[in-house]
Amino acid sequence: MAKKRCNGEGSINKRKDGRWECSIMFGFQKDGRRRRKSFYGRTRKEALDKMHDFKQKLEAGLITLDERPLVQPDILFSQWADTWYEGHKDSISKTTQQSYKYTLATLKEKIGDRPVNTIKAMDIEDLLRDLRKEGKSDSYVAKARGMLFQIMNKAEANELIRRNPVACAEKMKANKPMEAKEAFTAEEVKRMMEGLPHDKYGNSIRLMLGTGIRMQELLALEPRLIEEDGSAIHIRQAVKTVSGRVEIGPPKSRDSLRDVPIPEGMRKMVISLRETEDTYLFQSPNKEQPFEPKHYREKFKDYIEALGDVRVLTPHSCRHTYVSQMQALGVDLATIQSMVGHADLDMTQHYLHVQSPIKQKAVETFNAAFCGNDPHFSQIPVSSN
Known about the structure:
Elements: E1 4-5, E2 10-14, E3 20-28, E4 34-41, H1 44-59, H2 77-88, H3 94-111, H4 121-133, H5 138-157, H6 165-168, H7 186-195, H8 200-211, H9 215-219, E5 232-235, E6 238-242, E7 245-249, E8 258-261, H10 267-274, H11 293-307, H12 315-328, H13 333-340, H14 345-351, H15 356-371
Antiparallel strand pairs: 1-2, 2-3, 3-4, 5-8, 6-7
Helix pairs in contact: 2-3, 3-5, 4-5, 8-10, 8-12, 12-13, 13-14
């Protein structure tokens, strides 16, 4: 018998064994072949009814194409969130784990007793609005949304839900525009490069200004991570404060693992920092332990205040300063991001191709602007203070 269209959804025909067969097509398989499914019945209506029942369950997110149950109503959000966290925690640092636990507790308090498959986009929006009403910051709300997305994305990947509701939820607009990062001016940079004492702390501030490295990376530096000729430092670790204790761990992100070229005019200074018998350039009185970040911030403040005519910002402002000054000097953004190790995924694809000669040219630009003509940098006294 000739095949007939099944309400525009497939084809139907009567088989030689007397049964009716209704077939529908859903996309393509991995090998490129059409994905088809057939339904059989003793009557034409029975085959069509089976096909329609399958489509309704599929559209409702109750089954997969091979008719396996898609949702498990007894899995609560709190249960699935814990499962997700246990599988995810080993890929993040201990400090990030603590932050995740705090945010996760808030999410479980809000929707922990809800079955995962019942959470809709409007529920996500209501939750985020509640956080905003409770006075949570824009960054916290964004962090909560990001964690929700990861949790529900994994639920979708494991066929607990048909689609991720967070992807369909409206993003919360920030209450206020993001404040610009504080950075030293070019005049302040010159004043610090020329006026800071030529000791360990003064030179470490110069190093942050001239390379953009993070304070946490500076405090984790070991002599072995600095080239003997002072031409480069290798960022392989950073200090972390975990439960009040300073520890050595990986840098902030995978992109933070990098080799940082040093401007020629600063290399003797860097060599002076390298000349120590301690494990770390900055070491706690408790041997073999890195320096406390809060103690370094206090030293940084004292050294900047002593200059008198430079604003007292934070050590991290040196990093913002490096980026802004390099931009002002004409260095392209892709090169800058490669050198400072930003983990912005949107930018990563643009700066993976940046090669060492380009980076070297960039630091030479900084060298010429801020330390190329200063005789102090070619004859820096070595001091252990």
